Amino acid sequence: MKTVHDPVEILQREIQTWGTPFVELDCFGTDRAEQIVQMMDEFCRTYLHSKLRGYLFYGSSVGSAHGVQLEDGRELVIKVRPPPETNPYLSHDRTTLGSVCRVMNWLADRSYPCPKPILGPTLLAKGLATVEEFLDRGRRGNGFEPECRKLIATGFAELIELLRSFPGEVSCLKHFQRSECLYAQPHSKLFDFEKTAKGAEWIDAFADRARRLESHEGKPVLGHADWRVEHLRFRDGRVVATYDWDSLAFCPETELVGISAHGFTADWTLETIRRVPTADDIRAYVADYEEARGRPFSKRERRSLFATCVYCIAYGARCTHSLEPQKVEWEENTWPHLLKTQGEVLLHEGDR
Asked: Parallel, antiparallel, or unpaired for β 232-235 and 127-133?
């Protein structure tokens, strides 16, 4: 039986973990849990026609996710994003979110294990909310285990192949867009790249080299641009639940696989676990993906794939550095350590 939490208590507990609760302030204009719960209850009454009974979970990252139980017994997830102008590179506008919901509906109608949308993008406080079913099944995996790694890679290849037949318009799905600058606006206000540029020059050099090596030539395909173990659940040797569909993106396959390969092992919701892969883990993941797609990438494709992978590692290293800008020596299981010790090898992986 699921535990139903007091909404104010669970929000207050999460808000207190942040120095400044940027997400709540951007989404709701306040960091007072009582006021946020009142807004959520009004939203439920107006659009879902039932009062809020309690919370199953609450989490905030790029946006805020509210697992709720309503008085009529329904269990749903309400996702609230900051206004689109808060970070244009994250594509939280109505058009994009509407396309995400259409893709999810199409997948769910074909028995794909993703939550089925209940309500499309709707104004809530300062941002846009969507509502989906609460999909709670399967168990978490460990991406460092070969069997689980293979399931992640195979599931990704199967998803991309399935989505090739999606009939709708998806060109607006960019997820975390690149910019003309070396980095786009960071995905969270926690990270200030400009103020922490000193000491990060070596990271930026890797990012710049990686970008110059990228030359994705394949036609864009639709895929999940944050496909990693945290967003998947497993049972009986298969993926039985998938999450975080705001991350849909329409871009070349090699770019999608490079993004996934850099962090397929990461689960940031769990403490005291290893998250950052090694170069060997990344190579094995790409090999598993190639096996699942039924053909290897060409030398040119591998060069672009691994360049994207290294760029993403560099971006992660820049985020990590911005939180501890005076730090020079980095321990294992951090992006700066992976970049410093294996970034060069990964950049040349495409030459093999």
From this structure: unpaired
